[in-house]
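User: Here's a structure from my thesis project, written as structure tokens. My advisor, Dr. K., wants to see whether a designed sequence matches the one we expressed. Can you design one independently, without my sequence as a hint?
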């Protein structure tokens, strides 16, 4: 039986938020965007502590493995830091897993928030320690947005990591945007938003279980390693970035099928894909998902507000949720608090 999750202490106004870069060196490459994200966290009432190596750059990573580990360990060790938010994702956070001090994290549990490539840290830390980590907004993509973090993203952030009550239903946003503005070059205006049609059901049903959320490609990097998380009975929530294609998404879902994952999970949710991925009437997402999951009687829903478009809601790993995949509209309800 899966042990109960370790809930971190909730975030409150006035708390210290640590900012680290476990993967890509975007903080070094886009200093204005970083400054905006830090300023927005301050405007929201937090005190920001920037990691010593958060703006480091070593090739395609934000400093060496040792430097990135040093920042993470320092933030978990620092008694004043209440939450750790990553600057951005990337491709390399899984480099840290072998030497990450899981005992230190278990002794000093606190919020770790970020998405995309940070999935490797979320999955491994949750698997090794039971800590509830949060797939959610990052400093530069969301808090660094021109004009500040989107109101929907902020409201959901407050409900999940700043309140002791269960967040309840994560209702769909009224609007969303696929627009990408190059950071520190063209991101000097608000992005254009369009109406959000909301999530859709592909396979109806109801499921309850703990959330397991992350970027599909990053999660699959952990297959066959000691860092692969327990998937039994979970509601698996997957997202991907705009650089993928229908073919690569199909390949990932087929690998999950071959691993037997769809026979062990309670339900499947996919976050909203960026249009650049290229699904079309000739190569539709629905067909790809239903082909990969054929033969399994699980509720499946797509186009929820998380992933590589904005706005987004946070997903706390290990917190029990209910997926109600009704034919007309699916709902995702968090049944437990993510924090204490």
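Assistant: Designed independently from the structure alone:
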């Amino acid at each position: 039986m899966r042990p109960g999750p370790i809930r971190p202490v909730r975030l409150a106004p006035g708390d210290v938020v640590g900012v680290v870069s476990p993967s890509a060196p975007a903080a070094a490459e886009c200093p204005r965007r970083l400054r905006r994200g830090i300023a927005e966290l301050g405007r929201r009432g937090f005190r920001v502590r920037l990691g010593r190596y958060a703006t480091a750059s070593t090739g395609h990573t934000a400093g060496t493995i040792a430097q990135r580990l040093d920042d993470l360990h320092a933030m978990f060790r620092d008694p004043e830091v209440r939450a750790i938010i990553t600057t951005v994702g990337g491709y390399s956070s899984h480099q840290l897993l072998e030497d990450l001090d899981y005992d230190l994290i278990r002794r000093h549990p606190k919020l770790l928030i970020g998405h995309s490539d940070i999935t490797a840290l979320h999955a491994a830390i949750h698997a090794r320690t039971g800590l509830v980590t949060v797939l959610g907004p990052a400093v530069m993509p969301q808090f660094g947005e021109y004009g500040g973090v989107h109101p929907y993203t902020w409201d959901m952030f407050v409900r999940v990591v700043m309140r002791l009550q269960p967040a309840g239903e994560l209702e769909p946003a009224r609007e969303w945007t696929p627009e990408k503005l190059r950071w520190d070059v063209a991101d000097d205006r608000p992005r254009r938003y369009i109406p959000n049609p909301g999530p859709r059901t592909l396979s109806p049903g109801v499921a309850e279980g703990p959330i397991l959320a992350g970027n599909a490609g990053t999660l699959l990097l952990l297959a066959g390693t000691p860092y692969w998380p327990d998937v039994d009975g979970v509601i698996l929530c997957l997202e991907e970035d705009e650089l993928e294609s229908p073919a690569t998404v199909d390949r990932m879902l087929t690998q999950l099928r071959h691993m037997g994952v769809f026979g062990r999970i309670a339900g499947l949710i996919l976050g909203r894909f960026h249009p650049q991925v290229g699904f079309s009437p000739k190569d539709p997402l629905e067909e790809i998902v239903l082909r990969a999951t054929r033969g399994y009687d699980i509720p499946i829903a797509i186009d929820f507000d998380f992933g590589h478009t904005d706005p987004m809601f946070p997903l706390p790993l290990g917190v029990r949720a209910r997926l109600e995949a009704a034919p007309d509209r699916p709902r995702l309800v968090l049944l437990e608090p993510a924090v204490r």
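When you compare it with your expressed construct, this may help: The chain has two domains: 16-166, 169-334.
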